[in-house]
Amino acid sequence: MRDERSKLVMKKETFADLPQLDIPEGYKLRSFHPGDVTEWEHVIRISFAREIAFGDKIGFQPPFMPEKILFLCYEGLAVATAVAWEKEDGDINCGYLHMVGALPGHSGKGLGYTIALAALHRMREEGKQAALLETDDFRLPAISIYLRLGFVPLLVEEEHSGRWERIFNELMS
């Protein structure tokens, strides 16, 4: 489902309350390796239900940093991904949680939560003190994860208040 409205923005103000990172049994956490473009695009295509080219969202342009692109792998295959990115025009103390996705065949194991948390840990290791993300209204499972991780909505546009109210009503029903 493609939503043409503005992105919703959420922020985690501090990493002081970051939970311990526990990787589910049978899974391994790793960063991007040469040749991972196809695996990244596969996980994102399934997660977002549309084609998203690696070059359009991450690319190999400076400051490309493969260590910021994380994967959870099962039997050697990437099944979840998240990026501990930075906005070029953003606060240098604030990371940007980007392109979080997990394959549905591994649902129920907390992989979306785990890979997002791994990206937040990565940001903290880099000296970041907070994190931002952008999301869409229909990504309710992802929003639920972000709330559990301590992100809160930012009302950056007037119509965001009503959209967040609808989202919270849906999450509570």
Automatic annotation (TrEMBL):
One of its GO terms (molecular function) is acyltransferase activity, transferring groups other than amino-acyl groups. InterPro entries: Acyl_CoA_acyltransferase, GNAT_dom. Residues 27-170 form the N-acetyltransferase domain. Gene3D superfamilies: 3.40.630.30. It holds the Pfam family Acetyltransf_1. It comes from the Bacteria. This is N-acetyltransferase domain-containing protein. It comes from Paenibacillus xylanivorans. The lineage of its organism: Bacteria, Bacillati, Bacillota, Bacilli, Bacillales.
